Amino acid sequence: MTENEFTGKVVIVTGGGSGIGAATAHRFAAAGATVVIIGRTRAKLDKVVSEAPRGSTVIARVGDVSAQEEITGLVDAVAQEHGRLDTLVNNAATCEPLGTIADLDAAGWRHVMATDVDGVFFASKAALPHLRAVGGSIVNVGSASGLGGDWGLAAYDAAKGAVTNLTNAMALDHGAEGVRVNAVHPSMISTDMVAGFLHSDEIVAAVLNRVPMRRFGEPAETASVITFLASSAASFVNGAHIRVDGGLGASNGNPHIA
């Protein structure tokens, strides 16, 4: 990817107020893109804007991806205001409430599905006409939890599993239209979501024992894969799923016993 790869391009990043979304917005902006970040909390979005690379363009828009009319209006407004839309990054997600299906009620289940699955559907549907016009792309932020299960994360695992196969379906359906659709699947990235699970040094040590690189990843390390998938360097990459997990997914599930 060249230094000015995205000059003149317009990118939307949902869930852009922190973590992977914020890092992705900054990386696209540093490479010349006009980046619009969408999220539900104005203060978090404004902080990402204030920390953007010097001379770059990052714009905050408050919106909820789970509300179809709202996200459709936002996506259309971005394309109209800037004359195009080149990339959509579907990053907005929640893992809460936690629990097994025995623990969850219908409202909790729907809350996760509304953000993690409906949000991808609504934003992608709104973006597609604009992406077709320029030969753009979609990058879905899945999760290792969408490639294999976790204890106590029934709704999140189901939602990210849906994003995984929705990525496949979209890549098949829209590749001939010139729109590429790919996914990254992070795990053990230093974000607020991961931090919520790490209650003690013992848990942290147990987690790191399963990661071959013996450390947590940084949001910027996922962002670099996202921008690669959106770049001209990935022009024949469609329907790809890239783990960003320090090698966690290379294991067959057995503990470290050698």
UniProtKB/TrEMBL annotation:
Listed transmembrane segments: none
SMART domains with a match to the protein in the record: PKS_KR
GO molecular function: glucose 1-dehydrogenase [NAD(P)+] activity
Pfam families recorded: adh_short_C2
Cell division among keywords: no
Domain Ketoreductase as annotated: residue spans: 9-197
EC numbers on record: 1.1.1.47
Source organism superkingdom: Bacteria
InterPro entries on file: KR_dom, NAD(P)-bd_dom_sf, SDR_fam
Keywords: Oxidoreductase
NCBIfam families assigned to the protein according to its UniProt record, in alphabetical order: PRK07231.1
Name this polypeptide is given: Glucose 1-dehydrogenase
Species of origin: Catenulispora pinistramenti
Higher taxonomy: Bacteria, Bacillati, Actinomycetota, Actinomycetes, Catenulisporales
